[in-house]
Design brief:
globular, 44 residues, mainly alpha
Length: 44
């Protein structure tokens, strides 16, 4: 359950709002999502 919530959050907060044109932009967006999740999310 928790992993599907995380995946949904990545899509809705980082992937869908931006027009990602290539692999590099996608990589940066996903890296930012992981950083935000690990540093700022209240998942603990």
């Amino acid at each position: 359950m928790l992993i599907s919530k995380f995946h949904n959050s990545i899509k809705t907060d980082y992937i869908f709002p931006d027009e990602i044109r290539d692999f590099h932009e996608a990589s940066v967006a996903i890296e930012n999502a992981f950083k935000d999740y690990n540093e700022f999310s209240s998942h603990a």
